[in-house]
Write a structure and sequence with these properties.
InterPro entries: PQQ_b-propeller_rpt, PQQ_rpt_dom, Quinoprotein_ADH-like_sf, TPR-like_helical_dom_sf, WD40/YVTN_repeat-like_dom_sf. The chain is an alpha+beta fold. The longest helix has 24 residues. The strands form 19 sheets. A seven-stranded antiparallel β-sheet has the order 68-69-70-71-72-75-76, with no helix packed on it. A six-stranded antiparallel β-sheet has the order 37-38-54-53-52-51. Strands 1-21-20-19-18 form a five-stranded antiparallel β-sheet, with no helix packed on it. The protein is built from 32 helices and 79 strands. It has a domain of 443 residues: YVTN repeat-like/Quinoprotein amine dehydrogenase (Methylamine Dehydrogenase, Chain H, 7 Propeller), CATH 2.130.10.
């Protein structure tokens, strides 16, 4: 009968051993049939207890009562009643109308919080097994004949499912036991010893049945355990032979003696090893198909990988439109710049000759061999439910972008597809997941989650052979299964033995659902967990994480996405175990990221495990729940933890298992874990330390694991030791990998590509050429293999054999171009003979551009400058096609040597700079003629081609007409910033003084036109010969005349400090206006230009906004930042270069048009670069501590302890960013990369000069220099002394200090120096500074140091000089030093340690940046000379100063809170003292005491607004607001310690409302 049961496809081969156990035993006898009556099962009950995750519902009251009655019947001897109750329960008889959960298994309540083991059906089976012989006779009479008949029918039909039904329902009959034995033997035939062991154990656990089946059962079970790797369990089973009289068993048709002593562990182990050698784990290392994500039902990983060839065989777009592709690429690039590399959710599958891949809209089928599209779904016409529309038709850009990001990187249910070999299965109708503002007081912690597009979706089955013909759908308008209405499927189904298994949610309950693949009809379902916290609409983590089961050894393991995982014996449909774990606090995190300020950023959902699908390997279940933060390992049979959990930290995903090693993958590291113990075997990390990261899921080959990286490189490492085996750079985008038949599929965010495996291709080529030496495909492939081996000459010989009229020639032509380009790139002079052929062969625009680039480079290196200029002109202004569009884009990114990349336009500009520097006068004149000739061919000077020509060749006088025309166009269009940057670039590159003067005059006129008079006059003053300038344009001529007139007059528009009256008349305002802000002062790192001199830039966390403050204290309109980062943990810096401002914030770098800031604030943002999102690279740590000179400094580090972001000042038209070991030049007008270069240090500081960019590494004591025009590495030098540290950098000027070790007296010293990073030249070197010296760098320009003896020095970092030294009388030990710029002077404010009896201050603010402590002798110094401006220092008591107060007047305000006095009732009374100091002479102008102070919050920040027209200050501090009216006459002396009152009417009409003098902004009400 065993032979009759063998299906045709069942193999008798076991790896390493013949199937002995499967032929050991005969078939048992059949018994009589007794018909069993129906029984019913009803809803389970939910326990009201605190849950770690999902709740396992218990049997409801009626089921528990039936079990109780069965136990009582057994105890009372009423075995017939017990048999009926228990038998019907196991038979799962239906009773419609009682419960939709009838016939299902349920867990009993467990004392263990995490593990549930006992279920009602297993308990029913156990109770039957415990019946006495009389009870079993009754049971056999009732069910024996029925079981025998069903078994006979199932055997005759080769129906393993029917055999499993007999085993499940009638184990305690002879037929049930026979069915169970047959299932065990069948598992052995399939190479599943663990499944066989768990099946046979169902019989073995009952002593009666163990004795009945004797030694044969015991040996079969022990052998199964042993072959499954469980030696200890195998020995325990063999010990039970001690009571068995048999001393022989039949193995392979022969009698084999049993161990003489079954109690002797060593003897038993040797016997098992002799007769049952452990099986090699059965894994197909070269699968012909990959129909499931994860490779197989056990999800152990894709097999059969080998390094592919460099070029793709085919590549297809997986986005619906170019617009989608461009957005996704820009999003991905922004994340890369932030050091985050999200892994796409989608994974393709392969069925026969069809590749099935998800797209942004649905699924596409591609021919495996040719790459041609076969069909796609949906078709966006009258589809099955009429609801699917292309994403591009969503009118809201932000919503469309959010949905695309979700589908590509977040939505696991959307990204997966499965197949049973005939049909493909996928999910549709998956709406946007969009959390809203979190309500921290909401129940269950999820009340703040906004509803998604719906709590249901659609499961679709498509026929692969008939080009995606729709077979059935569940959900939507046409539902194939009425019982699954209102169902949300959490992933595509898992096909097992002709059925489909899918996890679904209905009415807040999660089920395992079994479907018929042909019709979609429901076969059965099993409840898994109850969701007490709401439906899937309320849980974005469960929604985007989904849940897909895994299957191995007869057990299906079901994740739930809700803090629980459940295992079922699929043959018996009973629970094996359920395991619960804690969910992370991800809902709160998401709500803070999404809704903190109304910002929706779905990228915050990326901070999780990439996939929660479990993996089953050799009796271990490994899983990384998306809703959890740990890796779990459980025993497949018991559900008990197999080893300690591993925290997620920076790990991304569990890749699979090979060679008993589980592969755990992070951003740039990989770890191998012993799958048995969880111990670390090895780490792979060293080769991925230069900013390279892992960007997709990898694939396995024999003894190796291959993974993709961000540098388009595939790396293969050994699974046994983690050592790198090989790597391969490729020319196609990399993402998730799938290996099939020696080919590699890679699906990235926007494309899917297929490449031939190198080994497979080589073997196929040799075979094909042997059969047909003229085989075109083999000829091309041979050439490609030779090309990859570096044999270019031989490769060209093979490729040139392909006829030009052959259909395959295009592939050969591309390879010919690649070979020739590579040869010219390596050695242009030696291979110049290839250039003519290459120019003829290159046809595609990108090929032509690369040929011209190589030609220009080679000619430039050879000294043929005019010919090189011709090639560069062809690149700069290429030909246009029939539509008038350039044949290639100068903004395209190109890869350069040394790990660099650049846009083509930036590269052209750099090469033209080389020409100008190297060519002689005669060559430059000839090039100027070439430019003039090209200019004549332009149809428009101001069009894109004209602007591009001027941008690249603006050095040459022939381009001057373009510059004038474009600048005038920009001015007329209101694009003042674009005109300014154009003119400033022309000034910098002008080769003669007359040209430079002309551009200076034009720029000065532009400034005058926007009323920036100070900048206009300063620019005009740089002109050498103003009277010789002639401008053709009437407008420009008028501006020039006005500039000459203004320059000849004495300026009167600016109000100087000297004009202000000397005395202050102070009055309180009874009904004060709100004039202050709770914003933080951003540090100005660069301030070039006069229009915004003395302005301040403020950022508010509470309003997520940016504001500018005038020198009069007026605040501009709030500019909403819409930041995705909640909190201010990160850099905050500002760079101002005339009309452009770069703002560096914790989440983004923003470009601001300052011309628009004064005219149209809504248009002031010109670009934004997000460098840090709510997920990747979000764990920035800010370390705030004083340096050796006492200045508080903030340093920001990422999870790898590397500086999070470094930025430089603006130089020319760009600034620099250093992040994740990548140096980037960013265009100030567009925010786009000009070039990028790899930097080999982790702690670099940036020093950017006009022509050289330096990266300074304190740890390695190196200065790495790069050419500013294109990032080309120049030289690396050592710098400084050991331990030298950076204090400040401005441009290329570096201020650093070295601490001298303490001497024998215990005192050390500081050495300070200023040097130029571009040249290494030392500009200033200090003598040894005394211990206790304090310092302050003001606006990143003036470095002030004060020694304990009073010696004070001021260095100007920009000018590179030391101002005149001064002294301040020492007032006590220095704590720190403050300094403020006040128009043309520098205020130095020490903070000394006061005697305890004088320390009566509480001068700190809740925000230290807004108010700082000062005490001791203060002095003002001239910024040009460094000389003191006061006759004597002003002695400051214990006060504080607000650095953000405006400097547009002569008064500086100090404030403090006095220690509280207690009234008679014991309540403390606080008060504030305010001082006004005249910065012109250091006088105390006024002191106000006894000002009212609140107890909480204890604020002392002073907010000031100035109205210079009325010589008036409005000062607000805490609840007080004072008017300071400056007059020439002194005020009457008030009573000591009192401020005269001035009560006003109730409407507050006496309150003075200051006016902002420029009229730009209105005062804040």
């Amino acid at each position: 009968m065993l032979q009759a049961l063998q299906p045709n496809h069942v193999s008798n081969r076991l790896v390493g051993q013949r199937p002995r156990l499967a032929r050991m035993f005969g078939v048992c006898f059949l018994t009589l049939l007794v018909f069993a009556s129906d029984s019913a099962a009803q809803f389970g009950t939910r326990q009201n207890r605190v849950s770690m995750g999902g709740e396992f519902i218990e049997p409801d009251r009626s089921l528990r009562q039936e079990m109780s009655e069965a136990r009582q019947a057994i105890e009372g001897g009423s075995y017939g009643d017990a048999v009926i109750l228990l038998g019907e329960l196991l038979a799962r008889k239906s009773n419609p109308g009682i419960s939709e959960m009838q016939g299902q298994d349920f867990f009993f309540e467990s004392e263990q919080q995490t593990l549930a083991e006992n279920s009602i059906l297993r308990e029913a089976e156990n109770l039957l097994g415990q019946l006495p012989s009389k009870g079993l006779e009754i049971y056999d009479l009732r069910y024996g004949s029925l079981a025998a008949a069903e078994l006979k029918q199932a055997v005759a039909q080769h129906d393993w499912r029917g055999i499993a039904t007999v085993s499940r329902q009638y184990l305690h009959t002879d037929a049930g036991q026979q069915a169970t034995l047959l299932l065990g033997y069948h598992d052995l035939n399939q190479g599943r010893p663990l499944a066989a062991a768990m099946t046979l154990d169902r019989i073995y656990r009952y002593e009666r049945l163990r004795n009945k089946h004797g030694a044969g059962l015991i040996v079969a079970l022990a052998g199964s355990w042993y072959q499954a790797g469980s030696t200890e369990r195998a020995v325990d089973v063999m010990v039970s032979l001690g009571d068995n009289p048999a001393n022989r068993v039949q193995l392979d048709g022969r009698a084999v003696e049993l161990p003489k002593s079954s109690a002797d562990v060593s003897q038993v182990t040797d016997w098992l090893a002799q007769h049952f050698p452990p099986l090699t784990h059965l894994q197909d290392h070269a699968p012909a198909n990959q129909p499931l994500a994860g490779g197989d039902a056990a999800r152990t990983g894709y097999r059969g990988s080998e390094l592919p060839m460099r070029n793709e065989r085919w590549m297809k777009q997986t986005t619906w439109s170019i617009r989608q592709q461009e957005f996704l690429e820009s999003f991905e690039a922004a994340r890369e710049q932030a050091g985050a590399f999200p892994i796409p959710t989608w994974q393709p599958i392969v069925v026969d000759n069809t590749v099935l891949a998800k797209t942004t809209e649905g699924m596409v089928a591609i021919d495996f061999e040719t790459g041609k599209y076969i069909w796609e779904y949906p078709w966006f016409s009258d589809n099955i439910d009429g609801t699917a529309i292309p994403t591009d038709e969503i009118p809201d850009d932000e919503q469309r972008h959010r949905l695309l990001v979700q589908r590509v990187w977040n939505d696991l249910p959307f990204g997966r597809v499965s197949s049973d070999g005939t049909r493909a299965y996928m999910l549709m109708d998956l709406g946007e997941v969009r959390p809203a503002t979190f309500n921290q007081f909401g129940g269950m912690g999820i009340q703040g989650i906004r509803k998604s597009a719906g709590g249901t979706n659609t499961l679709v089955a498509l026929d692969i052979a008939t080009e995606g013909k729709l077979v059935w759908t569940i959900g939507g308008e046409y539902n194939a299964e009425p019982e699954l209405v209102d169902t949300f499927f959490l992933g595509p189904p898992l096909p097992i033995d002709g059925l489909l298994y899918v996890i679904a949610e209905q009415k807040s309950d999660l089920f395992l659902v079994c479907l018929d693949p042909a019709s979609g009809a429901l076969q059965w379902r099993q409840h898994l967990v109850a969701v007490e916290t709401g439906s899937i609409e309320d849980d974005p983590i469960r929604r985007i994480g989904g849940a897909v089961p895994a299957y191995a050894d007869g057990t299906i393991v079901c994740p739930t996405g809700h803090g629980a995982i459940v295992a079922l014996d699929l043959a018996t449909r009973t629970f094996r175990w359920g395991f619960r774990y804690r969910r992370t606090d991800m809902l709160n995190q998401m709500s803070r990221s999404f809704g903190g300020r109304g910002r929706d950023d779905s990228s915050s959902l990326l901070s999780r495990w990439n996939d929660g699908t479990p993996l089953i390997y050799k009796g271990r279940v490994l899983f990384t729940p998306v809703e959890g933060d740990r890796l779990y390992a459980l025993d497949l049979q018991t559900g008990k933890p197999a080893w300690a959990t591993i925290p997620r930290e920076d790990w991304q995903y569990l890749a699979g298992v090979a060679d008993d090693t589980a592969i755990l993958v992070g951003n740039d590291t990989i770890r191998g874990l012993d799958v048995t113990s969880g111990n670390r075997r090895w780490d792979y990390e060293a080769p991925l330390t230069r900013g390279e990261a892992i960007v997709g899921r990898g694939a396995f080959g024999p003894g190796q694991f291959m993974f993709p990286t961000s540098s388009d490189r595939l790396v293969s490492i050994g699974t046994r030791d983690g050592r790198e085996i090989a790597s391969q750079a490729v020319h196609y985008s990399l993402g998730n990998l799938v290996s099939v038949r020696g080919q590699l599929l890679s699906q990235s965010a926007t494309h899917i590509a297929m490449a031939r495996g190198r080994q497979s291709a080589a073997a196929a080529v040799e075979s094909a050429l042997t059969a047909d030496p003229k085989n075109i495909w083999a000829t091309i492939c041979k050439g490609e293999l030779l090309l990859e081996a570096g044999q270019r000459d031989e490769a060209l010989q093979w490729l040139r054999r392909v006829p030009t009229d052959a259909p395959e020639y295009e592939e050969a032509r591309v390879l010919i171009v690649e070979a020739m380009v590579g040869a010219l790139r390596d050695d242009f002079a030696a291979n110049i003979k290839l250039l003519a052929e290459l120019e003829n062969v290159a046809e595609l625009p990108q090929e032509t551009a690369e040929v011209l680039r190589l030609k220009a480079t080679g000619l430039l290196e050879s000294g043929d400058f005019v010919a090189a200029a011709g090639a560069l002109l062809d690149l700069s202004v290429p030909a246009v096609n029939f539509m008038g569009v350039q044949t290639f884009d100068a903004s395209q990114r190109i890869e350069l040597a040394d790990g660099r990349s650049a846009n083509l336009g930036g590269w052209i500009s750099a090469r033209v700079d080389d020409l100008v520097q190297r060519a002689d006068a005669e060559s430059l004149a000839a090039i100027n003629d070439l430019v003039a000739q090209r200019l004549q061919k332009l149809t428009s000077l101001t069009g894109p081609r004209g602007q591009q020509l001027q941008r690249h060749f603006g050095h040459f006088e022939a381009c001057d007409p373009i510059l004038l025309a474009v600048a005038d166009r920009f001015r007329k269009e209101g694009s003042s910033l674009a005109a300014e940057r154009l003119l400033r670039g022309a000034i910098a590159s002008a080769d003669s003084q007359p040209r430079r003067d002309r551009w200076l005059a034009t720029l000065a006129g532009l400034y005058l036109n926007v009323q920036w008079e100070a900048d206009a006059l300063a620019t005009f003053a740089k002109i050498k010969a103003p009277d010789e300038i002639v401008l053709d344009d009437n407008w420009a001529s008028d501006q020039l005349k006005q500039l000459r007139r203004l320059a000849s007059e004495k300026p009167t528009s600016e109000l100087s400090l000297a004009q202000w009256p000397q005395h202050a008349h102070v009055q309180p305002l009874e009904f004060p206006n709100e004039i202050g802000s709770g914003s933080d002062l951003l540090e100005v790192m660069q301030r070039d230009g006069l229009a915004f001199a003395n302005w301040k830039v403020l950022a508010s966390e509470s309003t997520d906004s940016l504001q500018m403050q005038t020198p009069q204290g007026m605040l501009g309109p709030m500019y909403r930042l819409e930041s995705s980062i909640n909190g201010r943990n990160g850099p905050e810096e500002v760079y101002i270069d005339h009309g452009v401002m770069i703002v560096v914030l914790p989440s983004a770098v923003i470009g601001i048009d300052l011309f628009q800031a004064l005219q149209n604030p809504n248009d002031m943002e010109i670009w934004r670069r997000v460098w840090r999102s709510g997920s990747g690279n979000s764990d920035i740590q800010t370390r705030r501590a004083p340096n050796a000179l006492g200045q508080m400094q903030q340093r920001h580090f990422n999870a790898q302890n590397q500086p999070a972001l470094r930025t430089s000042s603006i130089r020319g038209g760009h600034f620099m960013m250093l992040q994740s070991r990548t140096l980037t030049a960013v265009d100030v007008l567009t925010g786009k990369d000009r070039w990028r270069a790899s930097v080999g240090v982790d702690d670099g500081y940036l020093a950017a000069g006009d022509s050289v960019v330096s990266v300074i590494s304190p740890s390695s004591r190196q200065v790495l220099r790069f050419r500013a025009s294109d990032g080309q590495p120049m030289q690396t030098e050592e710098w400084g002394e050991p331990g030298e540290q950076i204090w400040a950098i401005n441009g290329s000027r570096v201020l650093s200090f070295t601490e001298t070790p303490a001497n024998a007296n215990g005192s050390g010293a500081l050495q300070l120096r200023l040097w130029d990073a571009a040249t290494g030249e030392q500009l200033i070197d200090s003598q040894a500074l005394q211990p206790g010296t304090k310092g302050k760098v003001v606006e990143n320009r003036f470095a002030v140091t004060l020694q304990p003896d009073g010696n004070l020095n001021i260095w100007d970092l920009i000018e590179g000089k030391a101002l005149e030294s001064s002294t301040l009388p020492p007032g006590g030990p220095l704590l720190n030093l403050q300094a403020l710029l006040w128009e043309d002077r520098l205020l130095v404010l020490p903070n000394i340690e006061l005697p305890e009896d004088q320390e009566m201050r509480y001068s700190r603010s809740a925000k230290d940046q807004q108010h700082v402590e000062v005490a001791g002798p203060a002095m003002a110094f001239d910024l040009k000379t460094g000389k003191p401006l006061w006759e004597a220092p002003y002695e400051i008591g214990a006060f504080g100063v607000s650095p953000g107060q405006p400097v547009g007047g002569p008064l500086m305000f100090l404030s403090r809170r006095q220690r509280p006095t207690r009234s008679g009732n014991g309540i403390p009374s606080w008060n504030i003292t305010l001082q006004a100091i005249d910065v012109r002479d250091g006088r105390l102008v006024h002191e106000a005491t006894q000002l009212v102070a609140r107890t909480v919050p204890m604020e002392v920040v002073t907010h000031v607004s100035i109205n210079p027209t009325d010589w008036q200050y409005i000062v607000a501090i805490d609840r007080n607001q004072l008017s300071f009216k400056m007059q020439d006459t002194p005020p009457q002396k008030p009573d000591p310690g009192k401020v005269p009152g001035n009560a006003g009417p109730a409407d507050g009409t006496n309150a003075i409302r200051p006016k902002e003098p420029f009229g730009f902004f209105q005062p804040v009400e």
